[in-house]
Structure formats: structure tokens, C-alpha cells
Design goal:
4-stranded antiparallel beta sheet, single chain, elongated, mainly beta
Length: 240
């Protein structure tokens, strides 16, 4: 795999996530090589979410090592000249074997063959900077430790007037897009995909009760939780 830019024709080599597990259209996340900063960067819809750190002594600060010995499983190469700037890699132990990196629909970068994690942009919430995460401005209602957790169950309306359900059938929208929209809406309690191919969005805002049902693996939603919330029931009714 090559990431970078061809200065002759302006072509950019990048890795793009799928829009969903069942739709190979371009998704929300890209992995790019920044030739100016000499860093790998994961972006969500063009906004930086994760950076690898500067390349020093054969490795990047925030790429996850292969094992507890901190040994990296890849050799990295960086080429910079008047024609092109790019990054590439191969296996340390067997350079004849082609390794394939995968950027999934939530921003997790991993090795296709071994499923070993390489970078976890899906752990970047905008308020934390650990592991290479980048920070960005947060809605006033969101705080350190807040996040969405995948739960098995369903939302049940408490009031016909204050239990608000909305949806969007845009097939270019994936899980992360739904999450961003819900995060920026202070009343949003949870979200899920809308269509059978796991694109589009559903949102639950206002006054809902979440019913946890561990017997139905097909009924899963991302539920908003806070660091100070001791259990699910504390935020079932929109007390954010």
C-alpha cells in the first residue's frame, strides 16, 4: 500500500473506509500521508481525528506495537523527491508477503490477516488526546468521559409529545455520521442505521425508555452514556 501524493499530476494515494459493512461505497474515514509533517493522519469527512506522531528511529509514536515487547511488525519507508512524496510498508519478518491495512467504518485501522490493531481513531472523541487522538471543539452538553455504547435492546416512547424519533435514508451516511449528528444534538439519546445495508440514520431524542433485551442480537443501538452515569436507567429519560 502506498499513501502520499504525486506532484506531477496531483494524484493522491489514500485509504478510504467503506460506508458500511455491506456497502463498499466511500465512507467517512480516510488514512492519508502528510508529507509536510511526516505523519499518517486519519480524518473523518476531512476533519483530523488521529495522527501517528512524527516518524523517528524507524517507528511512529502512536502506531500500536504488535505485542508486549513493543516490537513493530512492519518496516516503514518514506520517499520524498520533486516527483512524489509517499509512505509505504512491508512485514518485518517476511518482506515478500503483502500486508493489507483495513480502515473500518468507525475509524479503526487494523491488519486484515491478523486483525491486529494499528490505530484506534474510533476511540477519539474530540476531548481526549491520548494515543494520537486530536482534540476539537465540543458541544457544551458533552463532557470528558461521555460516549456512545453499543447496546442490545430498543427504545420505548414515554410520551407521544416529547419522545422524538427522526430518520434519514441517505445511503452515503454511515454509523460514524449518525454518531456525529447525535453527538452534536444535546437531546439525542441514541442512534442506529436506517436501511438494511447499514446506511442511513435513526435518532431517538427527548423522553424515551431504553429496554435492554439480551435475547435479540439483531436489536442493537448506540446508547449515550456519561462518565458520571452509574447505570443505563439514569439517562433513559433524557436527563443529560
Amino acid at each position: 500500500m502506498k499513501l502520499g501524493v504525486n506532484h506531477k499530476n496531483g494524484h493522491i494515494w489514500s485509504l478510504t473506509s467503506w460506508s458500511s459493512l455491506y456497502s463498499a461505497g466511500p465512507g467517512a474515514f480516510t488514512l492519508d500521508w502528510d508529507p509536510g509533517e511526516h505523519q499518517l493522519k486519519i480524518k473523518q469527512r476531512g476533519k483530523g481525528t488521529w495522527s501517528s506522531g512524527v516518524f523517528t528511529n524507524g517507528r511512529f509514536e502512536f502506531l500500536i506495537p504488535d505485542d508486549d515487547s513493543k516490537k513493530m511488525r512492519y518496516n516503514f519507508s518514506i520517499v520524498s523527491n520533486e516527483n512524489e512524496d509517499y509512505f509505504t510498508y512491508n512485514y518485518v519478518d517476511d518482506q515478500s508477503v503483502a500486508s493489507q491495512w483495513v480502515l473500518n467504518i468507525m475509524g479503526r485501522l487494523h491488519d486484515f490477516d491478523t486483525k491486529v490493531d494499528i490505530a484506534r481513531a474510533d476511540y477519539c472523541y474530540g476531548y481526549n488526546s491520548d494515543g494520537g487522538c486530536e482534540r476539537w471543539e465540543q458541544p457544551s452538553c458533552r463532557h470528558v468521559g461521555d460516549k456512545y455504547v453499543l447496546k442490545t435492546g430498543y427504545f420505548q416512547a414515554v410520551s407521544s409529545s416529547s419522545s422524538i424519533y427522526t430518520s434519514d435514508s441517505n445511503t452515503s451516511l454511515g454509523y460514524s455520521d449518525c454518531g456525529t449528528t447525535c453527538w452534536n444534538n444535546c437531546g439525542c439519546l441514541g442512534f442506529n442505521y436506517r436501511l438494511n445495508n447499514m446506511t442511513g440514520c435513526q435518532f431517538w431524542s427527548g423522553n424515551w425508555e431504553f429496554i435492554e433485551d439480551l435475547t435479540d442480537d439483531d436489536s442493537r443501538v448506540f446508547l449515550y452514556t456519561t462518565k458520571s452515569t452509574p447505570n443505563i436507567k439514569a439517562m433513559m429519560h433524557g436527563h443529560l
